[in-house]
């Protein structure tokens, strides 16, 4: 007999009654039942199970997709209300339902339901993929417009939410009619682990009423048990007595299922069923888990024996002889998935057996790996807050980072490691029309390296918490309406060269005299920050010493110390540079050609600062200089560049760094500082010392 009828099985009759408030939260049993495409605020109670069905507007899909009714010609009088409507997703590659408020680490049964019913009037049966979180679940092939299709998976859910995603693979518009989530006990289905899930192929109740399936409340976990009878080859056996499984048995088929069984019509025959492996897109030879439920339903006379072997493809599947216990459930199952090219299960009576074999129920699963990790949960929480705040909708569905780089959310970049969850490393929300202030949730993206919020309508001040992002190297806030001062923490990062901060073309950052001033307290902190490092103290002492010696030198010998260039004016106070937004640099102006000569065609890089590289150079008179050239790829405006220069010079100690001049030549912008490395100072002191000695 062929074991394909589950594909053709029609739906259980689910009829509808009363009206309930919408329920996006699990009910008291931990169940979530969604009637996809049901419009309005209110759900209803489903007639046979008395479970409350929630409409799927709002929370579940972020308003993605559109609601449809199936065509009238496919509505039958006994059809349950939940099949009348569905939600389809014509836009986007991936659209997801998010089921929330669940317990991380527990096992859940997730079931999706589909009935096409020519809802779109196109008579085009679609095929699409389902993902459970970031893992492939299965391909859904809608094979008939009136077939009600159930697709089920049992998985360990790692987070306090789980997403069911419909993937458009180019073979038709994905849709869904219903979605259920049911918690299972930890002890159930031990084959399900954090790394492996079970996809249901079929769950049969042998000998049950041909017209009804069994589910909640008969099955407290609301598994669906489909009837399978075949009167031409099997005889049904049933009892009205209680049939139970031991407490905490891993499979626990419900009593209503265990109360019926079949035996071969011809008592000298065996029970046999078969199926063919169903290759999946990512697994051509899926592994199977077979769970069989047995219970003796007849009180056997003392001289009668019912015992049988369980064979797969003619070989023992289970070495133990099965003797079903009277009115108790017993399961036979494999722990590790079996992979064969065909499957024939036969229950063969032993030689001693006086009675033919029986079977009460069968569950057949294929295994899927669930090893792909979802994005770091703190990153997910933060990006969801950001998504909600700025109403970013485009493509932001499912897991932000995966699976794979194809599914990554538009505007994000992630990093992947083998054993740890992906992290969000880059966020580029430039030119997205963002309104409001800068969300402090950006500071919760702890692995963020690049944040571009330029060219939006952001207002308010720059949050200081951003300086907690230790990996952040680029922060572009230019072209917004931000105001206030730049937080101290960020200034420090800019100063030490670890952060490229851009904030040009904002309404009121550092251009307005008052808002631009660093508070006095911060200044003194800044001074401490600068003064404390021992190396700097040594340098200061050395400079003082050097200046003292230099004065002595100057008086005595002509060539040992360079004369100061008249065009150079020491850059005394940063506050004057940019006080009213205009340039007040009275230093020497260099052309780009001159800079090229000074730096020997930008030969030696001293380091990389906030806005570009810093090059080593020598003026005509031999003064060693540091040339900070605005990076060519930078889109930083002149004002920003000079404001940044102002910050840099403010932070640098006046005695240590002297600004010699600047370059503003076409697109080129550069600042030229006197450069005194320890070595140079040492050399000078050495030179003077030699002179003293030679006197
Ligand atoms: C019932 O059993 C007969 C004989 O084994 C088989 O030919 C037939 O296909 C079965 N029917 C169903 C619906 O499985
Ligand atoms: C469902 O219940 C309602 C009210 O209890 C009743 O009117 C309706 O006929 C029932 N539907 C079915 C299919 O039993
Ligand atoms: C579906 O049918 C219901 C009535 O049964 C109606 O209220 C609703 O507007 C219909 N929805 C669509 C999308 O046509
Ligand atoms: C999908 O179902 C249709 C109709 O049953 C069938 O013809 C087709 O081969 C199936 N496609 C795949 C890839 O299984
Ligand atoms: C039962 O099967 C055996 C062997 O296949 C056969 O010889 C016998 O006639 C069958 N009995 C009936 C009642 O069909
Ligand atoms: C079990 O019975 C089937 C026929 O029902 C037979 O083909 C098979 O060889 C038997 N297996 C064993 C191990 O006896
Ligand atoms: C059949 O019964 C005999 C006698 O009770 C016993 O010795 C033998 O082991 C049994 N065989 C099997 C396969 O159970
Ligand atoms: C895991 O993600 C990769 C893409 O990176 C994908 O190809 C693969 O199918 C996924 N694995 C599962 C089990 O879904
Ligand atoms: C930020 O985005 C804008 C617009 O896409 C782009 O021009 C600019 O170069 C980006 N900033 C950085 C630092 O990459
Ligand atoms: C910045 O702008 C907001 C309005 O956008 C205003 O409420 C706030 O007072 C301004 N802050 C400063 C320091 O100007
Ligand atoms: C700033 O605005 C001015 C005038 O609108 C424009 O010319 C300049 O390119 C802008 N700078 C940046 C960095 O966007």
From TrEMBL:
Q: Which UniProt keywords apply?
A: ATP-binding, Leucine-rich repeat, Membrane, Nucleotide-binding, Repeat, Signal, Transmembrane, Transmembrane helix
Domain of life, per UniProt, equals: Eukaryota
The reply to whether Cytoplasm figures as a keyword in the UniProt entry is no
The record's top EC class is transferase
**InterPro entries listed in its UniProt record:** Kinase-like_dom_sf, Leu-rich_rpt, LRR_dom_sf, Malectin-like_Carb-bd_dom, Prot_kinase_dom, Protein_kinase_ATP_BS, Ser-Thr/Tyr_kinase_cat_dom
Question: Which residues are involved in binding ATP?
Answer: 628
* Signal peptide residue numbers: 1-24
**Transmembrane feature ranges:** 526-549
As recorded in UniProt, coiled-coil segments are none
**PANTHER family, alphabetically?**
OS05G0525800 PROTEIN, OS07G0107800 PROTEIN-RELATED
Name-wise, this protein is non-specific serine/threonine protein kinase
């Amino acid at each position: 007999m062929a074991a394909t009828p589950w594909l053709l099985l029609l739906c259980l009759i689910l009829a509808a009654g009363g009206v309930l408030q919408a329920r996006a939260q699990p009910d008291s049993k931990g169940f979530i039942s969604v009637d996809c495409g049901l419009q309005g605020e209110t759900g209803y109670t489903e007639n046979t199970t008395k479970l409350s069905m929630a409409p799927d507007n709002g929370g579940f899909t972020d308003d993605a997709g559109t609601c449809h009714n199936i065509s009238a010609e496919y509505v039958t009088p006994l059809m349950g209300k939940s099949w009348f409507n569905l939600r389809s997703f014509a836009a986007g590659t991936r659209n997801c339902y998010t089921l929330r408020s669940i317990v991380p680490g527990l096992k859940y049964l997730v079931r999706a339901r589909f009935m096409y019913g020519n809802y779109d009037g196109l008579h085009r049966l679609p095929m699409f993929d389902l993902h459970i979180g970031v893992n492939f679940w299965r391909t859904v092939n809608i094979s008939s417009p009136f077939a009600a299709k159930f697709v089920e998976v049992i998985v360990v859910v790692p987070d306090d939410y789980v997403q069911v995603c419909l993937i458009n693979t180019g073979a038709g518009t994905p849709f869904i009619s219903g979605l259920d989530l049911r918690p299972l006990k930890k002890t159930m289905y031990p084959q399900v682990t954090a790394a492996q899930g079970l996809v249901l192929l079929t769950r049969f109740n042998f000998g049950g009423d041909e017209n009804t399936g069994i589910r909640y409340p008969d099955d407290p976990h609301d598994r669906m048990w489909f009837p399978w009878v075949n009167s031409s080859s099997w005889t049904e056996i049933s009892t009205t007595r209680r049939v139970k499984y031991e407490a905490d048995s891993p499979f626990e088929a419900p009593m209503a299922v265990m109360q019926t069984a079949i035996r071969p019509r011809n008592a000298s025959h065996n029970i046999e069923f078969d199926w063919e492996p169903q290759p999946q897109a990512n697994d051509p030879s899926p592994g199977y888990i077979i769970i069989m439920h047995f219970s003796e339903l007849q009180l056997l006379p003392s001289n009668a024996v019912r015992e049988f072997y369980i064979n797969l493809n003619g070989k023992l599947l289970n070495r133990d002889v099965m003797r079903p216990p009277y009115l108790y459930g017993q399961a036979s199952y494999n722990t590790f998935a079996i992979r064969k090219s065909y499957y024939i299960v036969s229950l063969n009576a032993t030689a001693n057996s006086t009675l033919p074999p029986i079977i009460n129920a069968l569950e057949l699963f294929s295994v899927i790996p669930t090893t792909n990790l979802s994005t770091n949960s703190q990153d997910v929480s933060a990006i969801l807050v950001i998504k909600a705040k700025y109403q970013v909708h485009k493509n932001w569905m499912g897991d932000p980072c995966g699976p794979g780089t194809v599914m990554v959310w538009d505007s994000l970049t992630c990093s992947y490691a083998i054993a740890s969850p992906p992290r969000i490393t880059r966020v580029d929300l430039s030119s997205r029309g963002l309104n409001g202030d800068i969300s402090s949730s950006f500071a919760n993206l702890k692995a963020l390296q690049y944040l571009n919020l330029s060219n939006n309508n952001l207002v308010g001040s720059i949050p200081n918490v951003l300086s907690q992002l230790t990996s952040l190297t680029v922060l572009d806030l230019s072209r917004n309406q931000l105001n206030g001062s730049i937080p101290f923490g960020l200034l420090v990062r800019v100063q030490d060269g670890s952060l490229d901060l851009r904030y040009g073309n904002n309404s009121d950052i550092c251009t307005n005299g008052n808002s631009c001033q660093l508070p006095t307290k911060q200044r003194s902190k800044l001074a401490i920050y600068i003064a404390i490092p021992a190396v700097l103290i040594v340098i200061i002492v050395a400079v003082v010493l050097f200046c003292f010696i230099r004065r002595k030198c100057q008086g005595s010998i002509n060539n040992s110390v360079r004369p100061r260039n008249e065009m150079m004016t020491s850059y005394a106070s940063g506050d004057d540079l940019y006080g009213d937004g205009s340039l007040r640099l009275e230093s020497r102006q260099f052309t780009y050609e001159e800079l090229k000569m000074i730096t020997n065609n930008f030969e030696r890089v001293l380091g990389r600062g906030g806005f570009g590289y810093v090059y080593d150079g020598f003026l005509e008179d031999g003064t060693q200089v540091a040339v900070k050239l605005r990076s060519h790829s930078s889109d930083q405006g002149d004002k920003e560049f000079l404001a940044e220069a102002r910050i840099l010079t403010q932070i640098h100690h006046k005695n240590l760094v002297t600004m010699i001049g600047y370059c503003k030549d076409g697109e080129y912008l550069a600042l030229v500082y006197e450069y005194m490395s320890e070595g140079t100072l040492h050399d000078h002191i050495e030179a003077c010392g030699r002179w003293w000695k030679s006197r």
